[in-house]
UniProtKB/TrEMBL annotation:
It holds the Pfam family TENA_THI-4. This is Thiaminase-2/PQQC domain-containing protein. It comes from the Eukaryota. The lineage of its organism: Eukaryota, Fungi, Dikarya, Ascomycota, Pezizomycotina. Coiled coil: none annotated. It comes from Monosporascus cannonballus. Residues 21-254 form the Thiaminase-2/PQQC domain.
Length: 257
């Protein structure tokens, strides 16, 4: 590829700016950063995010199955692009496993429910389960799942694009929440008891997470530069995937009064 930045081309694509704004700026995030998000609302969202994380783990496993280390031994394997991507995905899997446990610990410390049912599930007899948007994310992630003996129909590049899109939007969303002026100086006075401002938001805007998102971006750029498709073909297909993720990101946030 001849263009300078694959991800910048995606972010500047037609219609993306508006979609990205809606995916990363909303009243839920504002209330979260201000300490005005009720414990019940946070519980319902966190319960869905936990289901998302479980599917994310399978997603990462599917991407790992798409990495083929070079057979040639002309240089140390740790110097190859494939090894760098494999290391990234290894860290992603370790990170999401830690995140699931982090959810459980935070929920226990702050009295949050990880099986909370909101208005979208009320009146249904199936009990707790994924909301419609959560299920769409689960389906998207599972479409990359590894199938024993099966040939992967979705390339690694597309998988890394989905990974980057979800994580960069998540980072920017919670950075926006963190920029809000809190209602009370002491997070313990927040409606959620301080779970967001004392524990969750710092985790989702940490330097470590920023570095992880940056590494995804750099690996994605490297894979795009090696793609066989023309710039026009690659960007057209990738923009469609990117926009789909942004729509899901927007819909994943609860509507709050």
């Amino acid at each position: 590829m001849s263009y300078s930045s694959f991800t910048k081309s995606l972010l500047s694509g037609p219609g993306v700016a508006e979609l990205y704004e809606r995916a990363t700026r909303n009243q839920f995030l504002e209330l979260a950063g201000q300490g005005r998000l009720p414990r019940e609302t946070l519980s319902q969202w966190l319960a869905q995010d936990r289901l998302y994380c479980q599917a994310y783990a399978r997603f990462i496993g599917g991407l790992i199955s798409r990495v083929h280390l070079p057979r040639a031994a002309d240089r140390p394997v740790a110097e190859t692009m494939e090894w760098r991507v494999l290391t990234l995905l290894h860290n992603a899997l370790a990170g999401i496993m830690a995140e699931i446990q982090f959810f459980e610990k935070t929920a226990g410390d702050y009295g949050l429910g990880l099986a909370a049912v909101g208005s979208e599930m009320e009146g249904e007899t199936v009990g707790f389960g994924p909301y419609k948007t959560t299920q769409c994310y689960i389906d998207l992630f599972d479409s990359f799942a590894a199938q024993p003996g099966a040939r992967a129909d979705k390339p690694l590049l597309e998988g890394l694009l989905v990974l980057w899109a979800t994580e960069v939007a998540y980072l920017d969303s919670w950075s926006y929440a963190k920029s809000q002026k809190p209602q009370y100086p002491d997070p313990s006075q927040d409606l959620d008891g301080g779970a967001l401002r004392k524990r969750l938001i710092d985790n989702w805007t940490s330097d470590q997470f920023r570095a992880f998102v940056k590494e995804i971006e750099e690996c994605l750029e490297a894979l795009a530069a090696r793609a066989d498709d023309t710039e026009e073909v690659l960007l057209a297909g990738s923009l469609s995937v990117f926009k789909k993720v942004l729509v899901l990101e927007e819909e994943f946030w609860p509507i709050v009064a």
